[in-house]
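Good day; I would like, with your permission, to put a structural problem before you. I would ask you to consider whether the tokens describe a fold that such a sequence might reasonably adopt. The full record is reproduced below for your convenience:
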Amino acid sequence: MRIVHAIARLNVGGAALSVLELAAGQQRRGHDVLVVAGRVPTGEASMEHVAAELGVPHVHLTSLQRDVSATTDLTTVYALRRLLRDRRPDVLHTHTAKAGTTGRTAALLAGRARPRVVVHTFHGHVLSGYFDPMRERVFRLVERGLARSSGRLIAVSDEVRRDLVAFHVARAEKIAVVPYGFDLDSRVRSDPETRSRKRSELGVDEGAFVIGWAGRLTAIKQPLDLIRVAAQVDGSRLVLAGDGELRAATEALADELHIRDRVRLLGYVDDMGDVYAAFDALLLTSLNEGTPVVAIEAQAAGVPVVATDAGGTRTVVADGETGFLAPIGDIDALAERLRAIRDDAGLRERLAARGRTRMREVFSVERMVDDVERVYEEARRR
């Protein structure tokens, strides 16, 4: 098959990584695959080097941007329509809201060059919690219309599918759930030598209890709650890998709660593979998640996860088995779970061992490629 994947940008995060892993897996099966993506904006870390490492061909479409703009969005639609007419793919597979909107619109306007299979993956959604109510209503209407032109829709978790059904984007039977898949053995390292080296680089004593986090310091991730939780876990060190508009507020709260000397902000980290080895637990305080890839990678590295029960997090973290879940915003409960992991070495090892095994069982690349190929076939038959 000739397959075109379209995504807004190949920035650090689960959506971009899963698209690249999927494209590489499809190439290994003999498919002709191309990834189309916008430029990664200034201030965000890029995963374009992963495309090169995996041997995935990709092209930049400068007009494909995250922000809404009638001019650039229309330019993107016509550029994608031209690409479809030139390349004549069998499958157009779009990812993320902007690429999904412009890509599926381009397919509708492509005439005889319209791909036989048009599929869109929701790696999460912006239908609630991101924008004001008026814009959210508009986005929901747009997604409902585009869903009718899609052969199939994919959600990365049961929770995301439930949201899409609740917002009347499409009926449940039209939405397949396909969890992410990654080559975890190549992405994470947790051997004792790596752990010792990374903790030394971070200036952390071997006996310290290190709480890790990675992502964007933005409102949906609730980074201020990270500081509030760490303040309740005596003797802990909090290591934050990421950056964003709430960095200054995060640092200010650490000062206010008198734990600034226990907080280390690394900025964006291109490769987290070694960094997980330095953590004793991973903390997520998000208001919403599609599928938190950082939690998958951490558990694959043997790091238990304590997280808010947000979005698709429950798909990744098995409560009481590979980590713990707590209600969104419940600082006390999150801190209590972290103290339990800190104080009980046996518990920590049981969670770690099950996490290593479960992540490799559930989130493999080959399983993801199999699932997506089944979705393509179902869409082709419609």
Notes: The domain at 184-362 is CATH 3.40.50.2000 (Rossmann fold).
